[in-house]
Write a structure and sequence with these properties.
The protein has 370 residues and is an alpha/beta fold. It has 16 helices and eight strands. A hairpin with an 8-residue loop joins strand 6 and strand 7.
């Protein structure tokens, strides 16, 4: 099998590594000549760290590097069985890439977009064979993160989905199907983890005690430490994008505390200061369990809203959140742990105490309410 990769930035090169390590020949390109030229050396550096840890031999490293073929143009990528686009998140750029690819690909080749925020159906518009397009959303760093979200649009051919899934699973990934909706599974269902923490911050709680409460509940990182890791600017952009895509619904409210943090320049590890970083959380507060329950109740409610819209399963959503964010349990596992009555009582109390513009943030999802 031969896999095509368009885009050789951190994500594209990581995806190339995934398939080359699985024994596939990878034909890849990038619009930037310097990015193309440095790709083999960057891959060699990434693999060398595995050699140093004893996870890979020098011979295996050499074989993987030999499977990466760098080409100058998108038009040079065919013939391939699956081509994955990992270029900038701009609709017109992605459409242009696939339009060029279609000219030389076999009719049964599968096109895949690694978009994390754009509609797969919108990318498919204008293609000669839109039925061959799927979404394959890898998570960064692609060689490490096991999760891949598989997203069809309404016209995707069943065999295109089967091929994309088979090849991705054969490369060692856990593939979770999801609907072509804003945020897919992880980026959508994660919003309450950050949002409810920011709501509590605006109510007077400190980032440290909120993070300490979530870590006491089994989470590897609290919401503010995770924002610091990702970057408050990146988190703000994702939140604003999802809010716009969901018509400004209060469940995706962009809290002023996050805007102010970005405006301050203290956006996390990359600026050497964030909500928490470089400090560690304090001991958990006395009401740590109540803090954790509040955040988990809103995670449950968002997951239940997504489930009610179709295209996902309870187990798929749970697996995606655990693999994509290293959560100790998924939303529906939280539901089983706390019980439906407790979750409903928690969000009802939140709605009662919320300011008017946020009250519908806590409306129970269909299937969750009695």
């Amino acid at each position: 099998m031969t896999i095509g990769i368009i885009g050789l930035g951190a994500m594209g090169l990581g995806i190339a590594q995934v398939f080359a390590q699985a024994g596939q020949t990878v034909r890849a390109t990038d619009a930037n000549p310097e990015t193309r030229a440095t790709a083999p050396a960057r891959l060699a550096d990434a693999l060398q760290s595995r050699v140093a840890k004893g996870a890979m031999t020098e011979a295996e490293k050499t074989a993987i590097l030999q499977r990466l073929v760098i080409l100058e143009r998108v038009e040079d990528i065919p013939p391939t069985h699956l081509v994955i686009e990992a270029v900038v998140e701009r609709l017109e750029v992605k459409r242009q890439v696939f339009s060029l690819l279609e000219q030389g690909l076999a009719p049964d080749a599968v096109l895949a977009t690694n978009t994390s925020s754009l509609s797969v159906a919108a990318i498919a518009e204008g293609l000669h064979r839109p039925e061959r397009l799927v979404g394959l959303h890898f998570f960064n760093p692609a060689p490490v993160m096991r999760l891949v979200e598989l997203i069809p649009h309404a016209g995707t051919a069943p065999d295109a989905l089967t091929i994309a899934r088979h090849l991705t699973e054969a490369a060692g990934k856990t593939v979770i199907p999801c609907a072509d909706r804003p945020g897919f599974i992880v980026n959508r269902c994660a919003r309450p983890f950050y949002g409810e923490a920011l709501a509590m911050l605006e109510e007077g709680r400190s980032p440290g005690e909120i993070d300490a409460a979530m870590m006491a509940a089994g989470y590897r990182l609290g919401p503010f430490a995770l924002i610091d890791l990702i970057g408050a600017d990146i988190n703000l952009a994702a939140t604003e994008g999802l809010s716009a895509a969901m018509d400004g619904h209060p469940r995706y409210h962009v809290f002023g505390a996050l805007k102010r943090q970005v405006a301050s320049g203290h956006i996390g590890r990359k600026s050497l200061k964030g909500f928490i970083f470089p400090d560690s959380p304090p001991p958990p507060p006395d009401d740590a369990e109540a803090i954790a329950l509040r955040i988990e109740a809103t995670l449950v409610n968002e997951a239940a809203w997504l489930l009610s819209e179709g295209g996902s399963t309870e187990s798929g959503i749970d697996t995606a959140l655990k693999l994509g964010l290293n959560f100790p349990r998924g939303p529906f596992e939280c539901l089983a742990r706390h019980g439906r009555a407790t979750i409903l009582q928690t969000i009802a109390k939140l709605a009662e105490n919320a300011p008017p513009h946020l009250q519908t943030r806590y409306t129970p999802a269909p299937g969750l309410a009695p």
